[in-house]
Amino acid sequence: WQGTGAGAGAGASAGAAALSEASVDSSDASSSWTAVDVWLSLRAASPTDPSLRVDGAAYTAAVGAYMIAGRPDEANKLVREMNREKIDAGPRLYNTLIAAHGRAGDIEGVRAAERAMRAAGVRPNGATHGARVAAYARCGEIALAEKALDAGRADARAGNKPTVYAYTALVQALARSGRVDEARGWLDVMRADGVAPNAHTYSTIVDGLVRAGDAAAAESALREMKANGVEPTAVTYNTLLKSCVAGVTPADALRGGRDGSNSSTGSEAVERGDDGSNSIETTTDRDRPNPPPGADADASAALNRARRVLESMRASGVSTTVVTYNTLIDACVSAGEPTEAMFGVLSALVAAGHRPDVVTYTTLLKHFSRAGDANAARWLAREMEADVAVAPDASAYNCLIDALVKAGEVAEAASCVRRMRGRGCAPDRRTYGALLDGFCRIGDVRSAAGLYDALMDLGPSGGASREWTYYARPANDDGDVVVEVRETVREARELVAPDARMRCSLVVACGRGVASATLSAKLGEEIVERVVRDVAREGGEKSAAEAADLRGRWKLESKGGGGTRSLKKRGGSARSSASSSSS
Question: Region annotation Disordered: residue ranges (predicted)?
Answer without folding.
Answer: 252-300, 553-583
